[in-house]
Specification:
Layout: E1 13-15, H1 26-53, H2 60-89, E2 93-95, H3 96-129, H4 131-137, H5 140-164, H6 183-186, H7 195-228, H8 233-241, H9 244-266, H10 272-297, H11 299-326
Antiparallel strand pairs: 1-2
Helix pairs in contact: 1-2, 1-10, 1-11, 2-3, 2-10, 3-4, 3-5, 3-7, 3-9, 5-7, 9-10, 10-11
Length: 327
């Protein structure tokens, strides 16, 4: 029955958990959670749409921003069904096959976002440190090649983690700590020795996100050195202002992700409700805040959004006027 089946001692389903001990309040908790999901879906969709329709935004910086929004959007869509199903209907059961597929996409899109943030750091480095070569190096074909490379990179490294799970014998009706499937959570408390899968997951975490984070830090060391060599204070401030959004995006992505990963791997005695809160912060914080940050801090994005809204408003008024004249 396909590669997702395990030994006969393995369960046919897992049990998802939203907020342990707060089951009676799930309906009320679902209200802010749904609002956050709506903000994430609308915000990232709006960013993608604005960049697609506005010709003046067809530049490397905004192409990479669209990749970030696409990764956030896909990560949100991946976890939305199970989160709302647990909160609204208390439907906690999920098949092993569906759980492993969701786990694959959660980690793939998470690692993809990490890679996109690293590429955006390189974009800022080129724009500030090598402005004359910026347009010649980051052409459309180069950006497309970079996008394909980081996508293939995720598939090559995440798929073995999925295959390795076929060797594990899970406990009967294993209860997970989150309303979605997360690798460190799945391999915890198994019958068989999960050290190989745990080591593989930790290796991927350190390699994929560790190398990306190191690349980001090196890029910003070079950026700061280049900015400090600028004599005019106004030009220094202008150069640093172009990095504020990216620094915020890096912070709100890596801090929850590293916290959740280390909580599972190193702090096994952590209360489950803390793990659940960290998981939801890890899932929702970047997709919700990234569109808000870039909309508020990037003038061109903000102006493009306002123009689209004004155009839509004037079109609606014209339609109502035509209907009134026909009446």
């Amino acid at each position: 029955m396909m590669i997702f089946n395990n030994t006969t001692s393995s369960p046919s389903t897992f049990l998802l958990t939203a907020f342990p001990g707060l089951e009676l309040a799930h309906v009320w908790i679902s209200i802010p959670v749904c609002c956050l999901y709506i903000i994430a879906l609308l915000g990232n969709t709006m960013i993608l749409f604005v960049i697609f329709v506005k010709q003046r935004l067809h530049k490397p910086m905004y192409y990479f921003l669209s990749m970030l929004s696409a990764a956030d959007l896909c990560l949100t869509i991946t976890t939305l069904p199970t989160v709302l199903r647990v909160l609204w209907f208390h439907a906690r059961e999920i098949s092993v096959k569906a759980c492993l597929i969701q786990m694959f996409f959660v980690h793939a899109f998470s690692f993809l976002e990490s890679s996109v943030l690293a590429i955006m750091a390189f974009d800022r480095f080129m724009a500030i440190c090598n402005p004359l070569k910026y347009a010649t190096i980051l052409k459309d074909m180069m950006i497309l090649a970079i996008g394909l490379f980081i996508c293939i990179r995720q598939l090559i490294f995440v798929f073995p983690m999925l295959l390795a799970l076929k060797t594990i014998s899970f406990q009967e009706r294993k209860e997970l700590s989150h309303p979605f499937c997360y690798h460190p959570d799945i391999i915890r408390d198994t019958y068989s020795n999960p050290w190989i899968n745990s080591f593989l997951g930790l290796f991927l975490q350190l390699y994929m996100t560790g190398t990306d984070l190191m690349f980001i830090l090196v890029s910003y060391v070079l950026i700061i050195r280049a900015v400090l060599s600028i004599v005019a204070p106004k030009k220094q401030k202008k150069a640093l202002n172009t990095c504020v959004c990216h620094i915020c995006a890096v912070t709100i992505f890596y801090v929850p992700m590293i916290s959740l990963s280390f909580t599972h791997r190193l702090l096994s005695s952590t209360p489950r409700v803390i793990c659940s809160i960290l998981a939801n912060v890890y899932l929702l914080l970047p997709p919700v805040l990234n569109p808000i940050i870039y909309s508020l801090k990037t003038r061109t994005i903000r102006q493009a959004m306002l123009q689209l809204l004004q155009t839509k408003g004037s079109w609606s008024r014209n339609v109502r006027g035509l209907r009134g004249s026909w009446d």
